[in-house]
Specification:
homohexamer, alpha+beta, five-stranded mixed barrel, two-stranded antiparallel sheet, 11 helices
């Protein structure tokens, strides 16, 4: 039986399916009975759920978050859909069809990573080379880099989204750099590769996409700078001091890549390299958003619904080829 | 003897050189004597000038604007440098070294135009093809397109600047379009080619760069849309009706290519193609501005002077190759 | 039996009435049965509707949009009201009480048009006269001018709204121009008459109010300029070249009449005439909005509900006469 | 001999003329000699001046500000023009041609005041009538109202400017109110009359235009509200309590008449009457600014210089009548 | 039986409890039957209610607003919860547990007032002393000062909120003034005490919190200035003229204490004292908002829900002591 | 002979004094002669200088920057004052009266540091204690902390400015924290101490105040976070892992202490502690700016000159004590 997706549930339906339980809390009613308040989620969204007649044992057995098989029923409560859970049992992760719970890119991530290494292989400056190698050889970081989404919602919000986004940006940069011989290609390539590296720590993407506490308090821009510093420190500990101008220039690209203060960049671009990374990032993110909006539109209209982040509807009609 | 450039003149110098006279006015002093107030210009700037003991005959002989050989002297007047002109005589344009008066790109404009035609040759949609041909075969418009500057000041402000800017943008588009298969290449190529076509009418660039009255009142964005409509009308008159979706989509790219209302776009981008033209335009313009700022800096500092339009100084130090 | 208005329908009611069907789509359920998803509308709003057990024949018979007699029932679905349609039959337009479906001004449109012609008859400049005559004698355009709404929602959003708005503005202009003898009356009168002429193409108002594709992509401001150009071209074709200063000045009024970039004007007012049209337009639109808000308020409070576009509630209490 | 205006003085000229002395300070040099630093002003501007070899007696004799006959000479000091004063003597005000020192409207102020009273005579509500009478019969306030400028710089910055501005606005209101029968005419007329009444206290305009301390700290908007309250209090003391709705509505017009928070209005318009006063004010002020800019332009260009407060140049070319 | 709070009511429940009735309106159905539309409120919110089969007598008996005992039932209507009232009877205020209907500070208001008087007792300037005494001895105003909330929603929105807020601010000022000896302590203390005095007139807080008409049209900032003027006038009437610089300085603090135009201050701070009051106000208000958000959060998350006015979620995790 | 300050030099004076030479460049004239372009500075400003007839030897002898005794003369060149240098000789730093060249606080820095340590001694949380100790025991960093200015221009721009600013803020925090028992005092104290620690690396203040390259590209906000991380890393290396919540919370205070995106904070305050540091910082900085503006005003006016960063003039008149 196929998974019943959260966004397909209507009021008054019996439910018997596997969902992710998130933020469960054990509470007592005014009469003193225990119940569990929680969210049930999959890749399409989340719903409030209540399990009445719960016990501390049931509550303790739950992973937070974790996969659970539930029996229950959907209801309207104060005009909102919620799920009343009758029974709940923990399900082993190995039995899960993960793609029902977390969107994942359909691109071949290892192939993208190989191509990224090839493009970065064109870097000539020895210090930039060293620095990139320090990143590329950090297996744990690269594993995160291959799995992280590029954003919570706006674009590339899927497992592998970060590497897909970075890969396309590197190809764009590689294509157009010959047209701009005065722009320092090594800095642009390193800057593109590292501009969103802080996303590996900003977002949690094990079962659901969410900000980590550090991600929310510090943000991927400053976190990226910290990771860059850490790599330079670890090279320095090995006796390889990265040139200060290079550190400043790459750090500046990371800090300024949102292009405007109101988008969270504490510095405006002050080099041609920083401008280039800023616009390539914008281009790739906006084209993704527009494309997604067009593909997700379910009506037959020439226009998508209003896109809040773009302050417009998107025109869907295509010209003849 | 080399031309004495306007920005090299110091107070108290005798002057005997050729300048462009601009906005001459015949006035009378309180005593009733006639004098001429005017500007003298070359590619480096302009200065106020006064010719006392003038006559209506002298005034009438002046082209407005035009080249003149002047004899005179530089002075401080109310703390501003001005030129007191003793004699003035009209100079034939054939005797002028034009590059002293108007900056001109050092690129081969005809070669750029050939390459532009080659890239536009990749367009597949028959209506877009027709439309582009209508533009490319308008010799007078193409002559303007090859000569116009891309902007008064900010970027590519030289004779030929518009075609240089458009050519680079087309190459960028041509390079990166294969990375974005869902973006309609024909519209992007046409949109890049036409996004600034209104500049041919917005700016005057015969002797000095200035806005035309229409340019200032209507602006190159709306002027570009009018030219597009005119070409479609002239095709329609020949029995070839351009598809409405194509007209809307290209018109929309022209209108939205500044990306934000406060930069004079009456519409925000609402298609992937419009976003792409917007960012490629920004990228090319900003890289030019940064590069120019670095090259024009005369100090040895690691930083240029403050760049008002970029809201920052520019960092000039380069990493080792 | 009076028409049951969309905004009066409550859940669980049987329905037998005529509505406009909009955007119908034929779809199949997971079991393969065909159904039609559509909107049902009248002047008070629209609701989602579903006709289960539909057929391709039924779908094809529907005008899109068009008037239909439906039998059905209102329901709550995912907390939203929707209509389940049991049967649907096309209704001839001649049988419709149009005022139930499209709000229409209660002013005498032909009388307004006569008065507009009288006021425009005061224009003295021969070129402006010619231009206005070219507009006034374009019967099709004038028919649209008499029928178009002045806006989708904010003000004068009814059939005839554009001419009502323009008529009042012309009377205001006509009254106050004698107080400002240095302001060029001919340009103000022509500018007021034409400032929103692009609305005739921006909005669709045959059965429901909506933006046309061109309206959304190009906008009434740029469309107005195109229509102005078209009229001048057609005069030119008849050998009557309109003076360039006049074309620039009227075009500038159209482009700048929203007064600020963020309201979609690509040019800020740069003439007294443009300022005058801008403020008269604002005045008439805002007074309409305030008046409507006061009249539509159903509570007895001294204040209307929050008016999002005005960023305030409106005070309704009136002083004694 | 005609007055030598401040803006006509060039460096190195002997001077013997009457100016206003402003902000004189008695100081001693490092050697202990006394000198007076001061400004010399007329209607065209002001210049720094120094009188060396001054004495306490000379200093004490000066009105602050006051008219003085000076003998001296113009000089450049640190690139700024200043005047070195050799002798100074107080001049009786009766000997002064005041129009050289303070710009004054050329309109007949008493006639304007009569017309204002006529228009206000149309008010029907008895409380509004009472309130207006309380203002009109306050001779001292009305004297200020007839003399105050309407602004320091932007518009109507001349003696009598406030009444000229208010008079035109009242005529506009009187003309257009019949077009808007739902707008409460009494409130609009009172609101226009009183919207800038605080200017009588915000600005000093006895010899030179400047802000009073209260004007700068409190501002004409809040000052206007205080004056309104004061009049109502004085009526209440006579047993005539003005209706609260009327007080709130007129107070609201005064507070909101700048239309936007960033222009110093602590409240946005929340009544049709407030919107009407706001736009009529804007219209009259902007038309004045544009007209002034055109008339003050000394070049023959089609465009004025850049107008900072309007964010544009102004187009000066007029069409044929 | 404990009060059933408005925010605890679910659809389909029988209700028999005391609520505040607000804005009742007597209307007739299409059939001519009378019914009453009204709101029922307590401290947790309000709901729409309808009493069918009403009569003019029932309607007239209702206080507007007032306490009523109702019998009825909760229902969903157009997806919104509403209450159908079967019977209604007026309840005497003496029988009410007021804390169920209006939140009240749990601080000892009289003690706070004593401490406020002690701190204000440190003022040295005799005119400021006089002015403060005039306020402190106005028993009616001080009663309002002790009861008014400090804001409708954002912070200290409870009976007594204004005095709690003012008291804390005075203690902050008293603590830190010794660190800033150049700041005029008397003005800061008076400014803090009076900065929100207009709230006593801006808000209605007898049964429910709401803006008065004057509050909405004029606002507490301008109202505060009017009260200040009134006190000075009443002192002047007793022969005690308050120094103009003091009036200007305190008035300026009141006007500028929101710190920015867009927050409703018609003047930006122009004295050290105004800056100090502005920041102490912001500090106390924001710490309250953050603390409230943390305490009101019902989930176990490390983060509160999104706080619209702060443009962020709030981090709730505390460090170990 | 006292030092002739840069801002006291007038055109046409002979000069023989010691200045700091900055950014010297060796250039050749069109004729091939060598000359040195440089700036001469002291605490009051800087002037362009030219030494004609220079040699490579002279150029090489100059420290860049360094103290030099010059002989020369002041001149006007293109309306700007510049210095023509005839001879230049390097001066040993030991002979310099440093206070002529760099403004220094007149507070006792060591005493301030002792008091800072006392206040920080109140911290209770053991991890925060450890972290602070790691900073306080870094002698080199603390030396910088005692010498750095707090800003280039706006406030506390003197040697020692950073510690003076931090010290006052700590005293304010220490005074008011008891009033806010729910705010975590340890985090506020640590946050205040560290909020501007990045200034030690952002600014160069050895001879003149200027931004370092890193300061301009990365900024003191991100630099502060890097220093915090570095200290935690060095503690971790000693086996003392600082709690993540503490690191996040203090890092967040550093990042958000400018309070708004447009002031360079990449995160808005999301804790009560962050808000408190933000407002105490603003308060101390703004009071300093206002006080400085008042004290530096040389006129006798009640108002200072326009303060660009405060968008107002400052009122200087004080009330009687």
């Amino acid at each position: 039986m196929p998974h019943k997706f959260i966004n397909e549930i209507e009021p008054g339906q019996p439910l018997s399916d596997i969902y992710i339980v998130k933020d469960p809390i054990l509470r007592s009613t005014t009469k003193g009975d225990l119940y569990i308040a929680m969210f049930l989620c999959d890749r399409t969204g989340q719903l409030n759920a209540r399990m009445w007649q719960a016990s501390e044992a049931i509550y303790k057995a739950l992973s937070k978050p974790g996969f659970v098989q539930i029996q229950g029923r959907s209801e309207l409560y104060q005009n909102n859909l919620q799920i009343v859970v009758n029974s709940v049992s923990v399900v082993d992760r190995s039995k899960i069809k993960m793609e029902d719970y977390l969107a994942r890119t359909d691109k071949d991530v290892e192939k993208l990573f190989t191509e990224i290494q090839e493009i970065l292989g064109k870097v000539k400056n020895s210090d930039v080379k060293l620095l990139l190698k320090e990143f590329l050889s950090d297996d744990e970081l690269m594993k995160s880099f291959k799995n992280a989404p590029a954003a919570m919602k706006l674009h590339h919000s899927c497992i592998g989204g970060l590497i897909v986004h970075t890969h396309t940006m590197l190809k764009v940069a590689d294509f157009i750099l010959p047209l701009y011989p005065k722009v320092q290609a090594d800095l642009v390539l390193a800057g593109v590769f590292l501009h969103d590296i802080g996303k590996t720590e900003e977002l949690d993407y094990d079962m659901v996409f969410s900000y980590t506490d550090t991600g929310q308090l510090i943000g991927h821009i400053a976190q990226g700078l910290l990771i860059l510093k850490q790599k330079a420190d670890s090279l320095a500990a090995k006796g390889k001091q990265i040139d200060k101008t290079i550190m400043d220039s790459i750090g500046h690209i990371i800090l300024s890549h949102h292009g405007q203060y109101e988008f969270g960049s504490p510095k405006l671009p002050a080099t041609a390299e920083a401008y280039m990374v800023n616009y390539i990032d914008d281009l790739d993110a906006k084209v993704w958003q527009v494309t997604e909006a067009i593909e997700n539109e379910t009506s037959d209209s020439n226009w998508t619904a209003w896109q809040k982040s773009l302050e417009t509807k998107i025109y869907r009609k295509r010209i003849e080829q």
